[in-house]
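INFO batch 0412 | record 1 of 1 | parsing
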Amino acid sequence: MCTTSSVSAALHWRSTTTATSTTTTTTSLPRSDIEMIATAMVRCSSPGRITALHAAAEDGDVTLLSNLLSLGAEVDARDRGGASALFCACEVGHAGAVATLLGAGASATLRNAAGEAPLYIAALRGHERVVEVLLNYCAEKGIEWQDQRLYGDGWTPLHAAAVSGRPGIASILLTAAGPADAAALVTASNRYGQTCVHVAARKGTPALVQLLIEAGGSASVSVADCDGRTAADVARRNGNSGAWRLLTGTMSARNRNHQLQRATTPTVEKKARQQPTAQQSGKRWVGRRLQQRKAQFTP
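INFO prediction complete | emitting tokens
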């Protein structure tokens, strides 16, 4: 059932057998039995629990996928590794197959045994068109794809783009998140306290790191992970000199801005010294009146 010819034969068998069952009443099978047999055929799997739908998704054969689904294939069947047919299509990069499976009701958030979701694996592999199809689907269905609870250990699709060094994918994700949520997405930490900037600092290009900093703000460079390391520390430990110079430069500029702000913004103590209280103003007023009265009696 993993080839176009075998599925076509199954479709032909079902249609002819169903037609026969409606015209004869003796030896033909009931329609319910015909449907059950066809469904059982397409739901057979290998020892690794790989179904015909998985195979068609990996091949990107949209026609075969549609035929299998019409025969009763289980759209969210999972193989031994927990991957659905949609996950397989996302990993390989077949946007047409992804759209077909989503249209058939496949779960866009079903993770494999490693906690990887379809959007995560598509971002990791760098399949931009697949990422766009998934993001559009999430927007239509109201799925909050930025929610870290949808991904294993808090590794978001943006983490995936960072670890695989894909600025194009990162740009697509940040644009989809919008200005209001992009900063939160950049500074979101995984279970190890690592933000996307930490991850990109390992081997990412300065262009990727710069993109993340611009979206996350200068504060994103000062976040420390569970080991107390900033992204600049990670870049230095991994010998990523380009990212290290960019990160340390951003941190220095941020520190200078803070120092300048502190120097030009009056503190509470300064304000207290500069601005007289009502009691002090009253004393000065009384003092002037006393001086005026004394002046009247001065010969």
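INFO post-check: Residues 241-264 form the longest helix (24 residues).
INFO record closed
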